[in-house]
Structure formats: structure tokens, C-alpha cells
Amino acid sequence: MPDLQRHEFAVAFCVDRKFFHLALFVIWQIAHLNPHRRFDFVIATQDDLAVPDWAKSHGVILHRCGPVPDGSEPAMFHGSNSTLYRLMLARELGDRYRRILYMDSDMFVEGGDINRLLDIDLGPHPIGAALDFCYFRWSTYHAEEFVAEGLPALLYFNSGFQIIDTKAYREQEVERRSFDVCKTYKKRIRLGDQTLINLALRGKFAQISPCWNWQADFMYPHFSHYHPVFCHHFITHRKPNLVSTGKLATRFNATYRHFMTEFAPEALPDLAPPPEARMQTIKEHIRMAMDSYLAGANATAVLARFPDPYQARL
Predict the structure, then answer these.
(1) Count of structural domains, the chain
(2) For residues 275 and 249, what is the distance between their CA atoms, to the nearest angstrom?
């Protein structure tokens, strides 16, 4: 990677060619929302990519990842190794960056002070991450991976948004321990690196507010009316760039369309058409009401743990 370091922090994405334009989309949003940033943008990949001219002004750095360990094939996600690159960021970039914010490329950023977030107290933990959205439905959620290993209902996080303390990550050998799961786990690795790192850490991570990794727009589309959401994470196949659905606000698809028209016209043919302009049906209202009712006290309890989005639970 060229010697372009300006900061001790980085926001990083791990992608292959297919998702490169989506990583650039998230960078475009963050750059406009954080004009006085104290972090670099890094895109980690094994593909031959080129930073477009408009992104060069944001100092986007391409980092070529090394090979993933032999035997990690069961953890490939949808036939790609790119999700595993994030497990190697602390080792490959740790001499350059004290903290790395890893983000999935299927995110939509609407606010939040990334500078401040990157400097929050993580205690002794190697990462800070948000609980999986399942905790909004089940207060005693017992992840399939922990069940399979005969472990209790330990805390389980979504790996698509992680504040990585590179020193602690390396000292605690999180990378090695995560890839070792490929050798010991007897079940199908259903969620790639998320399965690996949750089994490696076994609930020992700093919990950050769900507003940084909000994963349930498809269930609770009105959530952000009552609680701040800084980063929307489209975790299912129902992504606004792929499908037109009344469950997701039209601003998501419209913003993708604006970005691609201006900066990535080659991606426009694969963009879902704008959602139909209409009122919600009674059936849709009832479904959303039932989803909110079933979340109820569980969701309220999760949110109550994070009165300050810049303070992690240790």
C-alpha cells in the first residue's frame, strides 16, 4: 500500500470487484458527513481495482490483501473470500493504524461523528460491535453457532460494523483464533467471518449502540422516527439497490440512483427501479404493527442500554 498515511484511524472496506462501487458509495456519504475527518479511507481487496478521479480527492487508499489461510474455504460467503479479509486487517494494517472501523459495503450512512466513534473506550476488548438484530425479538437469543458448540447463550454480534483496536486484536490473536474455527467447527459455517469471530471471541466484545449498525429496516422501517440511526445495514437480500420494496424508504434507492448516475453509470443497469409511488396498504400497516408489537419490551431494553451513542458497554 502506498505511503499515504495522514491519520492514526481508518475506515476500511473489504470487497471484490462486484462490490467496489458500493464501498465507494459509502465513502462518498461519510466524506460529506465528516468534512473534518481524522481518518483515512482504505479499500482492501485482492482484485485489480483503480480509484476513480472523484474519489482520489478523498484520499482513498487501495490495499492489496494477502492470501487467506489454507482450509478457510468453508467460510467463504456466497463464493467470495472478501468477507474474510476483515479478519486480517489488524495484522496487515496494524502498524499504520491504531483503530480501524470496518464497514460492510451494503450500508447507508446518514449521520454520526466517525471521528468521535473511533476514539471511544473499548476497555480490554479487541473490537466494538453491535448486537445482532435478533435481540430485538428475543431477549435470550441463543445463536445457532453457540448451540452447535454446546455453549450457553453468549452475546452475539453482527460483524458488518466493527471498531477494531489493532493492538488488542493482534495481542489476543483474534485472526488466528477465528480461522482456527474452520478446523474445529463441525457444522456448516453459515455466515462466513461472522460465525468465525463470534466463536473465537465467545461474547467478549464491547457493545456499541445499534444506531451505528441498524439491521432491521426491513422489519421496523419507522424505527428512525423515534431513535437516531446513523448507519443502516441492509443485511438481507432485500437491499434498496437490488429490489424495489415498500418496506424500505424511497430515499435509499433514490440516493443510490443519484450516486450511480453521477459516479458509477456502469452500475445503473443493475440498480432496482424506484419503488412504486403509493400509500401503504392496510395489510402492510398491520404487518409493521405486529413486528413492532413482537419486539416490544425486548427492543426497549436493548435501546435503554445505550443512552449515549459514543459510549460502549464493556
Answers:
(1) 2
(2) 9
